[in-house]
Write a structure and sequence with these properties.
elongated; 9 helices; two-stranded antiparallel ribbon; alpha+beta
């Protein structure tokens, strides 16, 4: 069912039904006397952009009313407290995440909603996610590397963690050896090399200023590391 209210389109088929236990009273007249009537089949919907819509039936016609979040809060507290009472648990620990989430898929879908809190140069946002999206810290590093809006220091640090983990684990290479290849000596990649080797204090040229960060140059150098060592497929897979 589609409603257009204040130039906004509400399509209940594309919205999430939050509650069908609420009541809604609206004003009317009977023989010139002001009256209050209780709507039937009251339903409360929320859009993906967090716009709220309440629908109700009266005299065989269905009406829609746009609501502010505070109005929704008051209605849920009064009529459907179970929906209003939610517990938000924020964690960056994968172990705690797996301990907390219900392993039964059906029960998890009914009782838990998984949300990723993202923060980058554009601000903070909540993004719905699936249980299967969370795997381990290694995948999490790649997610950050793919997002150019993340803080430069965070992207660079995640690149370093990925290279250190992957090549130490797969090829048993000492970290500095990875950056000795001639292909990585291009002037575009000097800032990348300095950051990756920033703990080598014996060399003054390894001092790094984050203002030198250029996402495209860092990404190209990062990609080149995997290509040089013979793992281009791994890079392509993780950057999808």
């Amino acid at each position: 069912m589609i409603f257009v209210i204040n130039n906004l389109k509400y399509d209940t088929d594309k919205m999430e039904l939050i509650s069908d236990k609420c009541e809604y009273w609206y004003k009317g007249e009977l023989l010139g006397t002001p009256m209050r009537y209780c709507g039937r089949d009251v339903r409360l919907f929320r859009s993906s952009k967090d716009n709220w819509l309440l629908t109700y039936r009266s005299n065989y016609t269905t009406y829609g009313k746009a609501l502010y979040e505070k109005e929704v809060e008051n209605i849920l507290i009064q009529y459907d407290l179970e929906k209003y009472e939610q517990i938000f648990v924020l964690t960056h620990s994968l172990y705690f995440f797996y301990e907390l989430t219900n392993t039964n898929h059906k029960e998890r879908e009914e009782t838990q909603k998984l949300i990723r809190l993202c923060k980058n140069a554009d601000g903070s946002s909540f993004v719905s996610m699936k249980y299967e999206e969370i795997q381990n810290d290694y995948q999490a590093y790649w997610q950050i590397v793919k997002d150019r809006a993340q803080a430069p220091a965070l992207i660079a640090n995640c690149m370093r963690n990925i290279i250190e983990y992957f090549f130490n684990f797969v090829e048993k290479l000492d970290f500095p050896q990875v950056f000795q290849k001639p292909e990585l000596q291009d002037i575009r990649f000097l800032a990348f090399n300095r950051y990756m080797n920033r703990e080598s204090h014996s060399k003054g040229q390894n001092i790094f200023d984050i203002k030198e960060f250029d996402y495209d140059s860092f990404r190209d150098a990062f990609k080149l590391v995997f290509e040089i060592e013979g793992y281009p497929e791994h890079y392509q897979k993780m950057m999808k």
